[in-house]
Design brief:
heterodimer; A: mainly alpha; B: alpha/beta; Rossmann fold; 3 domains; 6-stranded mixed sheet; 17 helices; 28% strand
């Protein structure tokens, strides 16, 4: 049973983690980002569309649609992030409202487009793109180790991809000049500006990164938990990853810890219900576990939080 | 090409803002390797002129020559490329970055891992900055985080930031406003050192003593116009003051003998915890009578803030009593305290004294808005607020661009302070606490406030004046208390103490003090 908890837990944790990293990039640059939910959904829509189009003309066993879909999802997520960029940076709108707008827009737009495209492309009145779950693999030798071996068992390829990208993003954030500029923009954009950094450009790139990374998460969910793309992708995982990076104090490594807690709370709860032989209706109850946990963590950890100082502030060059 | 030999030459600079001319046809030249002071009252146009030089504002008219070449400075970035650096009054630092990270920000030393992957070379940065701080005698640890440093160290970081970028022209905007006397001395030494290695230094200030101490030449500005350029060594401070204000200034306030009456405020064995959890105020007792100015002297951070906040009700005490006119107000909520008769002019104008985004009239009614004269049932009476605002604006000569509806944040510091003082004095309370009432204000405004403090005393109020400026204490006080490390170690009539004695007690020296 522990093995199942670990396997399912990681499959859920990692997409959430990469989405949270996207959120950290945006917020560390000073832009409040509630739009993760919408960006992961829109990204997944884009990727799923690419996948179903390719699958039509390809061998069923081919892995190409799978990988292409992730690339397409990232493009979709980045494109959609421009809504948030336009509202927050170009039009200097309130960033919270902009985030909510992006989320609502994504949900409405993708479910409309999914239905229309299904009708016109495949003449099927359906609101989903059926993808199936991704193939999984186990690492030879390592998966034989008791308990810990579960980490190397039944891995989705996207998990490996996420880990590689996460390491790269960590490096970008904490070791490169760009990362240094980005974090400065979120603490004191005036200081960054005075140092010759183009604050709006850095923030634009940061939001694009959050769009791209969220899309990877959305695509991962579509290929694992739901096995298709449908409006069900908007289950609130985007909000959960926001909670995760807030508990992680806007730092990448502690955020991984928070994501692991959420992931294992979810898979642990599901395993428990199976173990106790409870009716599957209780599965829905388990889904709220991470959120209940969020409530409690909020109570205990909120006061230790250090949000980026300029978070949510509209940057106006002339104002001092 | 220009052969005047000036490092910087500004010709006929004019800068207008809606409703005022900040700089009116100003021409001046600054030589390489001199310390040049810009003297003027608040709003005289000193900062605007330097903002023009630093590329933050574009002048409406006029030309700038740097090293003899005509330039059009379009942005601070451009100014930096021209070798101009500026330390602003409000520092521009990333609070969660280290000293080194702040200094290199925007021009980081880079390494390439495996020849391609960019990496900030923080080791090199730390070493470079340690060397730089050694070279100019600016003590800082490159690896400490900005938010852990005091203002004086943060200022040194700002200076290093300019030096790291090879600035040759260094502009300081009111550099001493936030420093203690010892820190000021240290800074002035640094500035002299910078001149001696050939940097050109410009200081914006309204403190005459500092100009006298460091500057070589000094331009006096008044209401946007250049009054004169003086050779500092051959000009007296009173002459500078006269030019700056535009009329004769008397340095000592005319004050009649105090005529103390009943005890108004009695503080008994008060102990207050500070931010860090230590006892900031320790077992303090004193009394203030009606018609008396009790001035509390002390070096910054010795418990003054905590003491004033506790009497005003912003902070709780852990032991002791505060008695106002015979009533124990120790645990009284703030509104009741105000009604019982405590007026408070706080040190932090922006965060404690005012709601910056409110129009002036609302700020002027901040302590009375809920009363029947301003509210009809649950609705505020805008006309009553306006009338009250206009009355105080006239009475206290508060200047603002749009009368009582000016957003307070848009007003100058001096006028913001006038607004707070107007609001508090208008309460006509038996006790008034002035905490650093003249901080950052110019001579004219300071002498006005001193007159008001004395007028309140003559009305019969008990005045608690807390100040870091020893001159202010000596000028206004009837009774002087000296606070050191949370304890009042001397209380005496002002006439019985000399400046030097007060200064000694401020440093915690108690022996030999009894001779007074």
């Amino acid at each position: 049973m522990i093995e199942t908890i670990i396997i399912d837990g990681l499959a859920f944790t990692l997409p959430m983690f990469i989405m949270a990293i996207g959120g950290i990039f945006s917020e560390k640059s000073g832009i409040t980002n509630l739009a993760l939910e919408g960006m992961q959904g829109f990204g997944a829509f884009f990727g799923a569309l690419a996948a179903v189009l390719l699958m039509q003309n390809m061998d069923a066993a081919s892995q190409i649609p799978y990988y292409v879909s992730f690339a397409a999802a990232m493009i979709g997520g980045i494109l959609f992030s421009f809504v948030h960029i336009a509202l927050c940076i170009k039009f200097k709108a309130n960033q919270v409202i902009s985030g909510v707008v992006v989320n609502i827009l994504a949900a409405a737009l993708t479910s409309f487009l999914t239905k229309r495209l299904n009708e016109s492309l495949f003449s099927q009145p359906s609101n989903k793109f059926v993808l199936g779950t991704s193939a999984r693999f186990s690492v030879p030798v390592l998966f034989d180790i008791p308990v810990v071996g579960a980490i190397f068992t039944n891995i989705y390829p996207f998990e490996i991809m996420i880990i590689i990208i996460a390491v790269i993003m960590w490096y970008v954030m904490y070791r490169t000049p760009f990362g240094m500029h980005l974090r400065a923009c979120g603490d004191n954009p005036h200081a960054a500006d005075a140092a010759g950094i183009n604050v709006n450009r850095v923030r634009t790139i940061a939001i694009m990164i959050s769009g791209g990374l969220s899309a990877i998460a959305g695509m991962s969910f579509a290929y694992s938990i739901s096995a298709n793309f449908s409006p069900d992708i908007y289950l609130g995982y985007g909000y959960l990853s926001i909670a995760a990076f807030i508990f992680g104090n806007w730092s990448i490594l502690p955020t991984l810890g928070a994501c692991l807690i959420f992931g294992f709370a979810r898979s642990g709860g599901q395993a428990l219900i199976q173990q106790l032989g409870m009716p599957s209706a209780f599965n829905d109850l388990v889904r709220i576990l991470p959120y209940v946990l969020t409530l409690f963590l909020l109570i205990f950890f909120s006061r230790h939080n250090n949000a980026p100082r300029a978070l949510g502030e509209i940057y106006d060059k002339g104002k001092r | 090409m220009d052969n005047s030999g000036y490092m910087i030459e500004m010709r006929h600079i004019t800068k207008r803002f809606p409703g005022l001319i900040a700089n009116d046809d100003i021409s001046l030249g600054i030589k390489k390797g001199e310390i040049f002071a810009l003297l003027g009252e608040n709003g005289a146009g000193k900062s605007t002129l330097m903002s023009v030089l630093f590329g933050m504002y574009e002048p409406d008219k006029g030309e700038i020559y740097i090293r003899g070449e005509k330039v059009k400075i379009t942005s601070p970035r451009h100014a930096t490329q021209l070798g101009i650096g500026m330390v602003h009054q409000h520092f521009c630092l990333v609070s969660n970055y280290t000293v080194a990270e702040n200094i290199i920000l925007g021009s980081e030393p880079k390494k390439r891992l495996l020849g391609i992957i960019p990496k900030v070379d923080i080791k090199k940065a730390n070493a470079d900055i340690a060397a730089l701080s050694e070279k100019y005698g600016l003590k800082v640890d490159p690896t400490s985080v900005i938010s852990d440093l005091n203002v004086s160290t943060q200022q040194r970081v700002e200076i290093l930031k300019m030096l790291y970028r090879d600035a040759e022209i260094l502009i300081f905007d009111e550099p001493t406003a936030v420093l203690t006397p010892q820190e000021i001395e240290y800074l002035l030494d640094i500035i002299r050192g910078l001149r001696d290695v050939g940097k050109t230094v410009i200081i914006i200030t309204h403190k005459l003593e500092e100009i006298k101490l460091v500057a070589d030449r000094c331009a006096v500005l008044n209401r946007g116009k250049l009054v004169d350029i003086l050779d500092v060594a051959s000009t007296s401070t009173s002459e500078m003051a006269r030019l700056m204000v535009g009329h004769e200034v008397s340095f000592s306030s005319d004050k009649t003998e105090a005529n103390p009456g009943e005890t108004v405020l009695k503080v008994e064995n008060l102990t207050v915890k500070g931010e860090m959890g230590h006892d900031a105020v320790k077992n303090v007792s004193f009394e203030i009578h009606s018609g008396e100015i009790f001035a509390l002297a002390g070096v910054s951070g010795n418990g003054q803030n905590e003491l004033a906040d506790t009497i005003a009700g912003l902070r709780d005490c852990i032991a002791g009593k505060i008695i106002l006119n015979g009533t124990d107000i120790t645990n009284m909520p703030i509104r009741k305290r105000i009604e019982a008769g405590v007026a408070y002019i706080p040190e932090d104008r922006h965060n404690v004294g005012l709601v910056l985004n409110f129009p002036l009239r609302d700020n002027l009614a901040l302590k009375r808005y809920y009363k029947a004269d301003f509210s009809k049932h649950i609705v505020m009476d805008k006309k009553a607020l306006s009338d009250n605002g206009n009355r105080l604006i006239t009475e206290y000569d508060i200047r603002s661009s749009h009368g009582n509806s000016t957003i307070t944040a848009a007003m100058s510091g001096g006028n913001q302070q006038k607004a707070i003082i107007a609001r508090e004095l208008d309460l006509k309370t038996p006790l008034i606490i002035f905490m650093q009432p003249t901080r950052g204000l110019d001579i004219g405004a300071i002498s006005n406030i001193h007159k008001q403090i004395i007028a309140e005393r003559d009305r019969g109020a008990a005045v608690l004046l807390i100040s870091l400026e020893l001159d202010e204490i000596m000028d206004c006080a009837d009774t002087i208390g000296v606070i050191f490390d949370g304890q009042i170690n001397r209380i005496a009539k002002a006439s019985e103490l000399t400046v030097n004695e007060v200064g000694r007690f401020m440093m915690g020296v108690t022996d030999g003090g009894e001779s007074a």
